[in-house]
Amino acid sequence: MRPNAKVPENPHVTLIARIVVFLGCVLPFLGVLSHGFIAVDDQMHTYLNPFLNGRATGGVWTFWTSAYGGLYIPVTYTAWALIHALGRGGATWNALPFHCTNLVLHALNGLLVFELLRYLLLSMPSSSARSRKAMISDPGKDVRIVIAATLGALWFALHPLQVEPVAWVSGLKDVLCGTFSLLSLLLFLMSGHDRANRVPLRFLGSLALMALAVLSKPSAIILPLLGYVLSLLIAYPAKRVLWMGRAGIAVLVVSVPALFVTSAAQPMPEGNFVVPLWARPLVALDALAFYLYKTIFPIGLTLSYGRTPRAVLATHAWAYWTWMLPAALALALALAWWKSRRPVGLAWVSLIGFLFFCLGFFPVLGLVPFGYQTLSTVSDRYAYLSLLGPALIVSFVVSRVTGPRQVMFVAGGVMLCIAGLGVMSYRQGTYWHDTLAVAERMLEVAPNNGMSQSTAGEAKMAAGDLEAAAAHLERALQLCEPSRVPDYSFELGWSRHLQGRISEAAGLYRKAIALRPSVPGAQNNLGVILMMQGNPVQAVSYFQAAIRFDPLRSAEPYFNLARAVEQLPGQAEKARALFQQALQLQPGIGQREHFPPWRLRQYEPGNIGSNTELRLMWPYGYPVPGSREGY
């Protein structure tokens, strides 16, 4: 199971290739370093995360003992905490260190893909002794393999589907998981060198890295199967049972425990469209068809596509015909391999690459329902590791070309394709500059998506365009899945509140609370309305509920509760204590004074007392620092 075509290595060529891969991975994405936080998940994960900003006790250790925000990804949260600490920490949150980390990890992943592809190309068994001898005597073989691995790594790293995890601060979980996954796969394949009478260090290292990958993002539970699929390229038939045994051990040690933890930490929201068992393969094949199309034609990419199970089965009925694309491609590749029967021919490698591509998506295809399906079954970030499959096919094709002219023709064509992908990725990165840019892109690509309309509505409110915001939020409420109705009802109520349409706002807040009491903003803002109506006694219970249900430990409900309590007889000391608690929770985020909603929230620590204004809660926390629309 050692490399079967040992050829002389050219260290200078390999070093140059690594430099090219690193720079090629970095240059098209340099623009993201000037981007800010995006008010879609970034606030929950980073600067408003109470266990990272000091508003809750427990710190980073909390992420290891329990799930947060419906996710159990303690390695990723620990990484975010380290990034903030190394970026000077404190109350000020700067997006630059987070974007730098994503970019560096992506470049590192490009290098790991280069090493993995190079190892696979060198280790593939030849079909005959004659061809093995020819390869060994070919002085240009190693150079061609290095070039092939370089082009495959650049194709992987520069594909526009990779922009989302690189340009989005919340995408750290994808690139970090990718780093551990690629390292584990490389060690898993190299574990064939472990001697039987010694400790299998490479295999044990692979298991440890698999565990870290799963703790960065749960979908990495598929890694043992991916490792076994790649081993089919380098293992002779007689040795494949050993690789199957290694994969089985990894499943038992890593995947099975992670499956139990993930299922407990990420329950499905109630009230959604329940996909019948017979229809789940159709949903999964529709998702695969989507990813195949976007891999070949990476245009029209955005954060959320609204491709929910209801959309593909009922609203548009896409799934009843899109399944034909992945099924037909799999059948064609299988027949091509069956006809050739070559162990390392193009048909076999293409079949393995396609199988790797499909299995990489397996945890998020919808065969087992998962939470994000309420917004969309498909997402660009899910393709991060799966793109190694097509990259393998690209590198194999280049490595098997002989003759200077053929090499120049094929490699030149691939380089032109990669250059085009790099330009598209650069352009795609501009859509991630801030929340407003993301929202506009979502509306352009998927206007009939509740999340697109909601994100646009929030961004428009932050920019002060309340009429446009209300229109978007009304549309979001019409398009969303049932589980999203409480959130979008609250958002629309909040926009009506800012417009001065108080009775409509109160009705929408009550609707949100009736459907799901744990919407803290609806509880807080309804309490504000009751205070405005002179009913502090009833308002107290709403402010207390907002505090109880708010995972971000926001200061607003504490200020409002203090204002309500001080109007009750004999509660002056309790009100003062609540004011002090609110001051301790006050985030160090600069707010724009010229925008009316901010003035509702402004306060000076020295002025806390009977003149304190009431404060509304925003749908998903405070504005993002440094972004042009105040979000």
Which key terms come to mind for this protein?
631 residues; mainly alpha; disordered N terminus; disordered C terminus
Describe the structure.
- Residues 1-8, 127-137, 587-612 and 624-631 have low confidence and may be disordered.
- The radius of gyration is 27 Å and the shape is elongated.
- Among the domains are: 168-265, no CATH class; 273-400, no CATH class; 436-607, Tetratricopeptide repeat domain (Serine Threonine Protein Phosphatase 5, Tetratricopeptide repeat), CATH 1.25.40.10.
- It has helices at residues 11-26, 42-45, 61-65, 74-86, 95-123, 129-137, 141-158, 163-167, 172-190, 201-216, 223-231, 240-265, 280-296, 309-315, 319-322, 324-340, 346-361, 388-399, 404-430, 435-445, 450-462, 466-479, 485-499, 502-515, 520-532, 536-549, 556-565, 572-585, 596-601.
- It is mostly helical.
- It has 29 helices and no strands.
Quick structural gist:
With 631 residues, this protein is mainly alpha-helical.
Figure out the total of helices: 29
Q: Please report which band the strand proportion falls in: under 5%, 5-15%, 15-25%, 25-35%, 35-45% or over 45%.
A: under 5%
Structural class: mainly alpha
Task: State the shape.
Answer: elongated
Q: Overall pLDDT, averaged? A: 86
Q: In the CATH hierarchy, what is the architecture of the domain at 436-607 at level 2?
A: Alpha Horseshoe
- CA-CA gap between termini: 55 Å
Fraction of residues in H or I helices: 55-70%
Give me the oligomer status: single chain
CATH topology of the domain at 436-607: Serine Threonine Protein Phosphatase 5, Tetratricopeptide repeat
Main beta sheet:
none
Secondary structure: number of strands: 0
CATH level-4 homologous superfamily of the domain at 436-607: Tetratricopeptide repeat domain
Could you spell the SSE succession in H and E letters?
A: HHHHHHHHHHHHHHHHHHHHHHHHHHHHH
How much is the radius of gyration in Å?
A: 27 Å
* The top level CATH class name of the domain at 436-607: Mainly Alpha
- Spans of at least 5 consecutive residues whose pLDDT stays below 50 are 1-8, 127-137, 587-612, 624-631
